[in-house]
Design goal:
334 residues; 11 helices; elongated
């Protein structure tokens, strides 16, 4: 196989306060020996083939994408059947995807229409494109009028999200009418490309933790545990899709033949772009793992982890006072 080398040279633009505004990778026009790190994305369509490859890599790595036996400790557990759009109790063995999103205000026309809000419509489309038949969404799969059912489901949110084969995180927009950028009618943030005589300047996207930090999704209390318990997360901010599992991080804008070691500056090429061959580009401690690279030696790792959870939780916005107990209980019971 012909040898390729990455071309990590870039131009960085700053404002007067030396705040980074944009980063453009320099891609030579003629030197075929250099393999670009980034690639230009379609504004209106995500790369489903590539996402399927990421999921297949996880499946090969640890056999985690296997049908779950229906458990007895979740009576009345319901799912949306994506093809029929009916809420049903699934058969004995099943795979399902869970959606984590911002509820926003209640839509009065929602109950009178068979069509879901755009974010849910897009999540259903993503499920079908990736080969999943069932989708779990708290607002629709939990009987909101049945107190006992609602309490039973909420108290086992850790089980629901941890056993999901995939958790879709709707990190863009402020309510479910926004949609998943690139998966439906909502287009993505344009990726700037500047063609020069001997090269092309291609804009690179911000790290996913920066996108999450600025999102409404991160500000809500329930998303703390939803992101924490999901073992495989497909994140939809405004720019690009990011996939996170225990093996590492995959970004849609990164060249399919490129993967990284633990440092963003350590480039290497792989024959196949498999998440199982990657290690994390960066740690998303504040959002998912709640662990620190260098915990204080004076306290135990468990104590430090709990402190980080409480610290992060206090930043979140609460809809109801009772949500404090339910969320913290779910996290600490895992």
């Amino acid at each position: 196989m012909e040898e390729f080398s990455p071309s990590p040279a870039a131009v960085v633009f700053y404002n007067r306060n030396w705040t980074e505004l944009a980063v453009f990778e320099i891609i030579p026009s003629r030197d075929n020996r250099l393999d670009p790190v980034s690639r230009l994305l379609d504004l209106n369509s995500i790369d489903f083939d590539r996402i399927r490859l990421w999921l297949q890599s996880c499946s090969k790595a640890d056999l985690a994408l296997q049908p779950h036996e229906k458990t007895d400790y979740l009576p009345g557990f319901r799912l949306i059947h994506c093809r029929s759009r009916k809420i049903t109790e699934p058969s004995q063995k099943y795979l399902y995807v869970a959606l984590s999103y911002v509820w926003g205000r209640e839509l009065p026309e929602e109950s009178q229409s068979r069509r879901f809000p755009q974010t849910i419509e897009d999540a259903i489309r993503v499920c079908l494109k990736l080969g999943f038949e069932y989708l779990w969404i708290d607002r629709y799969c939990i009987d909101q009028e049945n107190y006992e059912d609602k309490h039973a489901q909420i108290s086992r949110m850790d089980v629901i999200y941890s056993e999901a084969s995939l958790v879709i995180i709707a990190a863009a927009g402020e309510d479910p009418t926004y949609g998943l950028p690139g998966a439906g009618s909502q287009s993505r943030t344009p990726q700037q490309s500047i063609k020069l005589r001997d090269c092309t300047l291609l804009q690179t996207f911000p790290r996913v933790e920066h996108e999450l930090e600025a999102s409404t999704w991160t500000s809500r209390e329930w998303t703390l545990q939803e992101g924490h318990f999901g073992t495989r997360k497909l994140i939809f901010p405004d720019c690009q899709v990011t996939y996170i599992c225990k093996h590492g991080i995959c970004n849609e804008s990164v060249s399919p033949r490129m993967t990284w070691d633990s440092s963003p500056r350590d480039w290497r090429l792989a024959d196949e772009h498999e998440c199982g061959r990657q290690r994390s580009l960066w740690r998303l401690d504040a959002y998912f793992s709640f662990e620190d690279s260098h915990p204080q030696k004076r306290i135990t790792e468990s104590e430090f982890r709990k402190w980080r959870i409480i610290e992060e939780f206090t930043k979140r916005k609460l809809s109801y006072d009772s949500d404090v107990y339910n969320t913290i209980r779910g996290i600490f019971s895992s």
